[in-house]
Every structure is written in C-alpha cells, then in structure tokens.
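Technical note accompanying the year-one report. For the benefit of new consortium partners, we illustrate the data format agreed upon in the data management plan: each record pairs a sequence with a structure-token string. No post-processing was applied to the example shown here.
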Amino acid sequence: MTKIISVFGSSGPQAGSVDYEIARQVGNLLAQVGYTVQTGGYSGVMAAASQGASEAGGHVIGVTSSQIEQYRPVPPNQWVVEEKKFKTLRERLFYLIDHCDGAIVMPGGVGTLAELSLIWCSVQVGEIAPRPIVLFGEMWAQVMTTFINPKYIHLNHQRLISLANSAAEAVEIVRSA
C-alpha cells in the first residue's frame, strides 16, 4: 500500500515564485520515492506540490471543502487525480491529518498553522499514531524558536517535529522516519 504524505502550505504562492517552486520540488521528490501526495487541493503550495508529484508520475489526492468554495469559488487544481470533498473546513482538516503517513509543512498562514497545530497535538496526545512532521524553511524555524519554551513543551514533544531547509532534506526526513 502506497504511503500518503500531506503537504500543507499557503494558497498564495504563484507559479515561478520561490515558495511555489520549492513546494513543486517537494511533491516531485515525494512521488519519485513512491509516496502519494495529498494536499488541500487548491492553489499555491497545494498546486505546486500536486504539480510536482504529477510531473514525476505520482498520484495526487486533493482534499477540498464546499465551505471553502462558498467564499472562494475555485475548483481543485488541475493536477488533482483523486478528490475527497467534504462539507466543512473542519472535516477537511481532520481528514488531511488522520489519513496520512506523515506531513511536510511549507510556509503558510493561519490555516497552515492550524494544520500544524492539530497534527502535532494529535500525535502528542496519542490520538493518532506517531508520524513524521517536517517543518520547512526559515519561517518555521523562527516560529519554533519563539514558540518552544521547555516550561510548556517537553523535550519529547519537541522531538515530534523536525526542521528542514531543502526539499531533499524534507523528503529524506519523511523516508527515514
């Protein structure tokens, strides 16, 4: 059975931008080593990772939501092969974290932070089985440096996440977990 890696990140990056191209490379490398790439299904990082996986011959799952499409009427990106559509954003979010074997978290905003927080907390408390959670780039390194305080986050819970600075490093962390 093919393992599924959820790639989280901003819907904002456009094709050709640095963030888009790195996410495209992440998707491509994941597919090259045999993973199915799963994203939120829309634009930006989600489209980039989907495009990269598709270009490498990989399978792409897009997890979408009717609720999102009510306020932002856009279809899934063109590289989605299999769409899982949910009524609410909450259902979409839980599917993305429950039905993956690991996650790579690219730069993003509040939605990406929610995805990171939920998967990290769910692994921390044992609600879902341990899986690699890889945070990509300087943005997340800064956030974690600011956020992690040993008084509140035990070392063993800090170790549930990894930081990566390149697409190859992110994929290698997932592979070696």
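Partners are asked to follow this layout when depositing records. Helices lie at 18-32, 45-55, 66-71, 89-98, 110-124, 138-147, 155-158, 167-176.
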